[in-house]
Design goal:
five-stranded mixed beta sheet; two-stranded parallel sheet; globular; 4 helices
Amino acid sequence: MPTVTATITREQLDDILDTAGLYETDEDTERDEWGDDDIDAISIREGYSGRGMYGGTCLGIVVSSQRTAFRLIACMAEVLGLDTTLDITRKAATDSMGRDMIVYFPGVTLDA
C-alpha cells in the first residue's frame, strides 16, 4: 500500500477545476447524462482503489478523455506548483471505466 505523499485540500481541488474550466458531477451520474460532447464534466472518487493498490485508497478523478486528463494535470501545476505536481503524478495511473477513464494518484488524499 502506498504511503501518503501529498494531501490536496478541497479548496485546492476546486481551484484546479476552476482553472481547468472543469465542473464536478455526482459520481452516480451516467455518462449518457453528460452528453457525448461534454468533456468538461468530471467526477471525484475520494477513496479509489486501483490496480496493485491491494485495498489502499487514493484520490481518483473520472474524466471523459485524455485531453481532459492532460488539462487537469496542467492546471494542477499552476495551482499546486510544479514540484508538488511532479511528485503527485510520478505514481499516477489510469483505469478504463467504459467510455471514460479514471486518473488516480496513489499516495494522495483529499482533505475536506
